[in-house]
Automatic annotation (TrEMBL):
Binds 2 magnesium ions per subunit. Its EC number is 3.2.2.24. GO terms for molecular function: ADP-ribosyl-[dinitrogen reductase] hydrolase activity; metal ion binding. The gene is draG. This is ADP-ribosyl-[dinitrogen reductase] hydrolase. Mg(2+) binds at T65, D66, D67, D254, D256, T257. The keyword Metal-binding applies. Pfam families: ADP_ribosyl_GH (PF03747).
Length: 304
C-alpha cells in the first residue's frame, strides 16, 4: 500500500489550494442564482455556468459572499493563535468581520454574534432551531489546520468554531463529516473511499442526511440537511469539478453555500488542474490570492 502524502507535501498543498479556490468559485458562481428556483434559472440563463455577478445582492463579477469571507476570517484567527481553534478568538474574528459590514450575513450568525457582543460568551446556547448551514460553510480552515491530528482533536476544533454561531447536533455532525471528508480527499483518497470511511457513521446517527435514496434535492434551503444532500448528490453524480458545481448551483435555493461547499470538496478531490481557467480569471484576484496564501499557511502550520 502506497503511503498517503503528508500535510506539507506538494500534492496535498496543491489540493488544499484547489479546495480553497473551489470554495470561493462555488460561492461566486452560486451567488448569482441564490434564492432562485431551478425553473427561474432556466428561464433567465438556460444553464447557469459563468461567473457574472449580479443576483439579489447585485455583486460584481467574481465577488464572493459570507461563505468565503467568514472562512478567511476564521483562517486568520487560527493562524494568529498558532494553529489552535479557540472559541473566543473565533468569536472575535467573526465579530470583527461583521463590523466590516459584509455584503451578506445569515440570520443565525447575526443573532449569535450580537449575543456575543452583549455577553462576551463565545459559545452560543444549544438550540434545535440552529441547524442552518452557516457553520458548515466555513469548515475548510479547520480541516487544513488539523490535518494529521487525532479524531478527538479534530472534533474539538470543529465544535470550537461551529458553536460560536451554531450549537446544534445536526450542524455539528455535518461539520465533522465535511472536515474529515476534506482531509481524506487532501490525502488523495477517492470519493468512494472517503464516503465509505465517514458516511456510515454519519447516517447511523442522522439518517435524515441520506442522499442516494432521495429524489434530486432541488431548491435547497439553508437547512444543513438539504445543503448536504444537494452537495453530495452533485458530487456523486458529477463528472469533474465544473460539472459538479454547475449541477449544484443550478438547483437554486441557497446556491452560494451549496456551491461553496461543493467547490471545496470538488477542489480537494479533483485538484487544481480541473478548475476552469475562465473561472479563475473571473474570480476577484484579491480573494484568489488570500485563498492560496491561507491554504499554504494553514497546512505549513499543521505540518509543524
Amino acid at each position: 500500500m502506497t503511503p498517503l502524502p503528508a500535510a506539507g507535501s506538494g500534492a496535498t498543498t496543491a489540493r488544499a489550494e484547489a479546495a480553497y479556490l473551489g470554495l470561493a468559485l462555488g460561492d461566486a458562481l452560486g451567488a448569482t442564482v441564490e434564492f432562485m428556483t431551478p425553473r427561474e434559472i432556466v428561464h433567465h440563463f438556460g444553464v447557469h455556468r459563468e461567473i457574472v455577478g449580479g443576483g439579489w445582492l447585485k455583486l460584481r463579477p467574481g465577488q464572493v459572499t459570507d461563505d468565503t469571507s467568514m472562512s478567511l476570517a476564521l483562517g486568520e484567527a487560527i493562524l494568529a493563535n498558532g494553529g489552535s481553534v479557540v472559541p473566543l478568538a473565533c468569536a472575535e474574528a467573526f465579530d470583527a468581520w461583521m463590523r466590516r459590514k459584509p455584503v451578506d450575513i445569515g440570520n443565525t450568525v447575526r443573532r449569535n454574534l450580537v449575543a456575543f457582543r452583549q455577553t462576551g460568551v463565545p459559545v452560543a446556547p444549544s438550540s434545535d432551531h440552529d441547524a442552518g448551514n452557516g457553520a458548515a460553510m466555513r469548515v475548510l480552515p479547520v480541516a487544513l489546520a488539523t490535518l494529521g491530528q487525532s479524531p478527538a482533536a479534530v472534533s474539538a476544533a470543529v465544535q470550537a468554531q461551529a458553536h460560536v454561531t451554531h450549537n446544534n447536533a445536526v450542524s455539528d455532525a455535518v461539520c465533522q463529516f465535511l472536515t474529515l471528508a476534506v482531509q481524506d480527499l487532501l490525502r488523495g483518497c477517492s470519493l468512494a473511499e472517503t464516503l465509505s470511511h465517514h458516511l456510515g457513521s454519519l447516517l447511523a446517527v442522522h439518517p435524515e442526511l441520506s442522499f442516494r435514496d432521495r429524489p434530486r434535492r432541488e431548491n435547497p434551503s439553508g437547512w444543513v440537511v438539504e445543503t448536504l444532500q444537494a452537495v453530495l448528490q452533485g458530487l456523486d453524480d458529477g463528472d469533474g469539478f465544473e460539472d459538479c458545481l454547475v449541477d449544484v448551483v443550478n438547483r437554486g435555493g441557497d446556491a452560494d453555500t451549496t456551491g461553496a461547499i461543493a467547490g471545496m470538496l470538488a477542489g480537494a478531490l479533483h485538484g487544481p488542474q480541473a478548475i476552469p481557467r475562465r473561472w479563475l480569471k473571473a474570480l476577484d484576484p484579491g480573494v484568489a490570492s488570500q485563498c492560496r496564501e491561507q491554504a499554504r499557511a494553514l497546512l505549513q502550520m499543521a505540518a509543524r
